[in-house]
Design brief:
The protein is α+β, with helices and mostly antiparallel strands. It has 10 helices and 38 strands. Helix 6 packs across helix 7.
Length: 650
């Protein structure tokens, strides 16, 4: 929300002048010849430049310059630029230029910027300055410039050379005091040797093609080339912020966190209350984890750069009843200490399991905190690591995922176990496909008219259950019933559901069950003596669709999983199967699909058709070279699931 409505009016262009009045750095860029790109390219970045100058005391000043040319109507959004900062950061020299196709120039200055805050956070000192031109059109060039002054948390920085759009030139320059050392790491690209001029280091890439948007592609940050740097002086106060190993990062994080994790008397009392009469450590952990998960409300709190890592005191979090990820993890650690169970805070990146790069030891790679509980011997769900005891990872901010499991977006990612000199980077476990299981049992009765009545029972475990519980928790009973009704109607036109039952109050470690009845008129088409119907009633459209012949990026699945359908179709009395679909099956390196049919005749001449469908995904990422097999796999699943069965009256 805007902090004040007063600055709204200056969003209109301020002043006009010919292109010769633009700054020299803009005119120099405009003289470069732009390449031709596909008409679907919204805009082209002509220059993305950051120049960071570090002073002897470790403070840094970064001047950013960003120029782009609009190619189509979608690219008009580039007329807006948002620059984030906090109480420990100062933004100055903010300016923007809009150069129209007719060479007229419009300029905005710092006084034209709109101040905004982060609306989703309970407490936050993160703000942004927004510069915006309303009249940007095809052929327009928009340029932005600003300076950021800050005292970095650590002597490190990084620069993404590209987001998604094509880039003509992107460079990062680091100016250091004489005698300082620098080490660089380049990811998602071949190594880039910096151009060195004294104590100035420059990394540059040119003519980067657009990163094509494809369905189920990895996060864009996992594809975009970027450079990460670590720098350090020979000595002095600034050297205290230098990190060269994951143990350095562990010590740095522990210094910030440890004093906030003391088990004060109220914490001890609550922990012992929750674990009264419990003998085993794992059951103590289960009792405390459930309470922290459910009773301490998660809120987003962002107070300065250091506030992203330093938790509030655990006793304060207990008293207030809310906190962010590091607060909830620190409170749980304090409660576990009170009952003599060892644990560690773990720094992770939430949202992209491939984001953290082990080659670059840096706290700047993390945005989330969870906890690892240490056991002397392996417990179900633990990870063995020679540097630690058996570790059981748990995210206390996720109210849906039980102890022993992890949200799918954390599984397989790297996390830093914070434990002073003994800390280190570990890879979080990936649950096998059998842990994420969905089983749908459907009993269908077909009438002579083509009407059907079906009873459905869905049972889900693991992260498939968590995803469903998350959807259920966000909706009222009526809203979720409508959601299921819409999902069923997408497969069975005109379907009406009733008798919806969900075990909402079951323990998180128990399977989630959903039961309902489906009624639909004329699902089967009556053609004289024939009834024509699709035997696979549900989950027909719920497959990834891959239409392009070739692909540039890997295919990314959220999780390993097993999904099964067991469908029993009771034919109308006096009808028999005249034409049965052919079964289908395909085994690949990443998954398995099977679809089978069987006719069973019971006493009293009742005929049933049993349909079995099973899809297994056992690899979460398939390289682009395997795309042909992925497309074949899901094309087969889609086509086979739409096959038709014909019944004939006798």
């Amino acid at each position: 929300l805007p902090c004040s409505p007063a600055p709204l009016l200056p969003l209109a262009p301020v002043g006009t002048s010919p292109v010769d009045s633009a700054p020299e750095w803009i005119k120099a860029v405009l003289q470069t010849s732009a390449q031709n790109y596909d008409k679907n390219t919204p805009f082209v970045v002509l220059l993305d430049e950051r120049v960071t100058t570090v002073k002897d005391d470790g403070k840094a000043e970064t001047r950013s310059r960003y120029i782009l040319r609009v190619h189509n109507q979608e690219g008009r959004v580039a007329g807006r630029r948002e620059i984030f900062y906090d109480s420990q950061t100062k933004i100055s020299d903010l300016a923007a230029w809009h150069i129209r196709a007719d060479d007229k120039v419009f300029k905005l200055g710092s006084r034209n910027a709109i101040e905004e805050s982060i609306a989703d956070d309970l407490y936050s000192d993160i703000r942004s300055k927004v510069m915006r031109f309303r009249e940007v059109d095809i052929g327009s060039v928009v340029a932005f410039e600003w300076v950021r002054k800050e005292k970095p948390l650590v002597n490190q920085d990084y620069h993404f050379f590209q987001t998604r759009s094509p880039v003509l030139a992107s460079r990062y320059r680091l100016n250091l005091p004489a005698g300082w050392k620098v080490e660089s790491f380049v990811f998602n690209h071949a190594p880039i040797a910096p151009v060195v001029d004294g104590s100035s280091y420059t990394w540059e890439l040119q003519n980067l093609p657009p990163l094509k948007e494809e369905s189920r592609m990895p996060d864009i940050a996992g594809l975009s080339p970027f450079v990460a740097v670590s720098y350090s002086p020979a000595g002095g106060r600034a050297a205290e912020r230098s990190v060269a190993s994951w143990q350095d990062v562990s010590r740095w994080a522990e210094d910030l966190m440890e004093r906030r994790i003391r088990a004060e008397e109220p914490i001890e009392a609550k922990a012992k209350e929750l674990t009264a009469g419990i003998a085993s450590d794992i059951e103590k952990v289960r009792a405390i984890s459930r309470w922290v998960q459910r009773s301490i409300r998660y809120v987003s709190i962002q107070l300065g750069a250091i506030g992203g890592y330093r938790p509030n005191p655990a006793d304060v979090v207990l008293k207030k009843g809310y906190g962010d990820c590091k607060d909830k993890s620190a409170l749980m650690q304090a409660m576990l200490r009170a009952v003599n169970v060892e644990s560690h805070i773990v720094l992770v990146f939430s949202g992209d399991p491939g984001r953290v790069r082990p080659a670059w030891p840096s706290p700047l790679q993390f945005n989330h905190a969870i906890i690892a509980i240490a056991f002397e011997s392996g417990e179900p769900g633990t990870t063995e690591d020679s540097r630690f005891n058996s570790l059981l990872f748990f995210d206390p901010t996720d109210s849906i995922t039980p102890l022993g499991d992890l949200p799918f977006y954390l599984q397989g990612s790297y996390g830093l176990v914070v434990n002073g000199d003994s800390g280190g980077l570990v890879q979080l476990p990936i649950r096998p496909e059998t842990a994420n299981h969905a089983r749908r049992e459907v009993a269908v009765k077909v009438e002579e008219t083509g009407d059907i009545v079906a009873t459905v029972r869905e049972v889900a475990t693991g992260q498939l259950a968590s995803a469903a519980r998350r959807s259920i928790s966000r909706s009222s009973a009526e809203e979720y019933a409508r959601e299921i009704g819409a999902r069923v109607a997408s497969d069975i036109p005109g379907a009406v559901i009733s008798d919806l039952k969900i075990n909402r109050d079951a323990d998180l470690e128990a399977p989630l069950t959903i039961e309902y009845t489906v009624k639909a008129r004329r699902y089967a088409n009556r053609l004289g003596k024939l009834l024509v119907l699709r035997p696979v009633l549900l989950w027909v459209q719920n497959h990834p669709v891959f239409t392009q012949a070739e692909r540039e990026h890997p295919v990314s699945f959220e999780m390993r999983s097993v999904k099964e359908d067991f469908i029993t179709i009771e034919l109308p009395r006096g009808f028999r199967v005249d034409e049965m679909p052919r079964g289908a099956g395909l085994n690949t390196a990443f998954g398995e699909f099977t679809l089978t049919y069987e006719v069973n005749e019971r006493e009293k001449k009742e005929i049933f058709v049993a349909v079995r469908r099973r899809m297994v995904i056992n690899e979460r990422v398939v390289p682009a070279s395997g795309y042909g097999e992925v497309k074949q796999f899901f094309d087969l699943a889609q086509t086979a699931s739409q096959s038709i069965m014909v019944l004939m009256s006798r």
